[in-house]
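Suppose a classmate hands you a notebook page containing two proteins, each written out with its sequence and a corresponding row of structure tokens. How would you begin to make sense of it? This section walks through that situation. The first entry is reproduced here exactly as it would appear on such a page.
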Amino acid sequence: MLKISSSFDGGSISVLAADHPENIQVRLRPDNASPFKQWFYFRVQGAAYCPCRMDFGDVTDSAYPDGWEDYQAVASYDRQNWFRVPTTFENGCLNIEHTPLANSIYYAYFEPYSYEQHLNLLGEAQSSGLCQIEDLGSTSEGRDINLLTIGNQTASDVKIWVIARQHPGETMASWLMEGFLSRLLDHQDASARALLDVATVYVVPHMNPDGAVHGNLRSNAQGANLNREWENPTLERSPEVYVVREKMHEIGVDLFLDIHGDEALPYVFVAGTEGVPNYSPRIAALESLFKNAFRAACPDFQDEVGYPKDAPNTANLTLATNYVGNTFQCLAFTLEMPFKDNLNLPDDDYGWNGQRSLRMGECLLHPLLVAARAIDDER
């Protein structure tokens, strides 16, 4: 008997009809408290060796309709190994056509990263002996907002902040964090040791656990898009941003990265703070230094295609990167990875995936080290 379900961590789909494998009618489900929709993650049972056609209907009312162009969904039998499956987008309608080779298979918008994986990552980080975990507060549904502090925490240290998963459907951000923390906490890694000689690194690996568990694309359990809350967060609507921002003001920030995924652009790129009032030649020079070092460390990164740069004094200060960069007059970037594939180095079988995001996290140590040394030399 054919069955479709999504009642699990991160699951999201609405089922209209599942009477026949070749005529499965599903629809994108909006976030639990906001109209954003694009993320999906569901399980199909009872269709082994049957050609399946999953019709999502008209998806032009999704959050990012351009994201469906040249997009291929991912699938897994064991939720460990994910691969791309044939997906078409024609006349506004999205369809997945695939023949499962077992009775249980999962389909998703991108390779998921569960809340349990996040908790395991915290445990592994603490076990390194180099990391302190601090509780900053709770989400509206009572989940922990944790800060990882890695380094000597001396007054002269460069203060680096890295946050991820403000948008819960951008799971590649969590995969990047896993790679970043694994390398940073490796006692034998020379780049990690050199970075921690000049910097203390403050990491919030999961900004939006409520939204992730709900299977949301962009918002928390209260319907707030956290990356539009930084200018005036509240404990009622956006406690995640409120407590992290308070800690930043207590400690200070010299360098900031906010990790995201972009639905439409098939590239890895960064967005800086050109449009904030406190942008300066000093920050421009640090931006160039960081990007050149990043290109040298990772061929997946490029700086030719990205978001249009804001004109001077026109930046939206509700965004994390703009708020932090302007407030602390520091180097600040939003790092974007694709949901599709990276056209710089395409991979027909996997596209951009969790492992490539993880490797990107490992590569981040080099540009952070180069930038941190430059900031340290200024003092």
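The notebook's second entry, a different protein, reads as follows.
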Amino acid sequence: MRLKPCIPNDLAEYKVRYEYKTSVYNITVKNVSKTGGVAVKKFKVNGEEIIEKQVKLMDNGRIYEVEVEV
């Protein structure tokens, strides 16, 4: 899964719940730069930063916490 979030300047964050088969991905997009836009600066899964800024979707019944900073 790769994300290209779009967030307005004045919105601090938004959340999306994405279900892939038996797994759940709770995605939080944070506007840390306060300038909005779509460029992903950080991509974390369960607190671990992912340099590739993407994650393979898994069908394992787990819940994943995804945090994206733009």
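A careful reader of the second entry would note: The longest strand covers residues 13-20.
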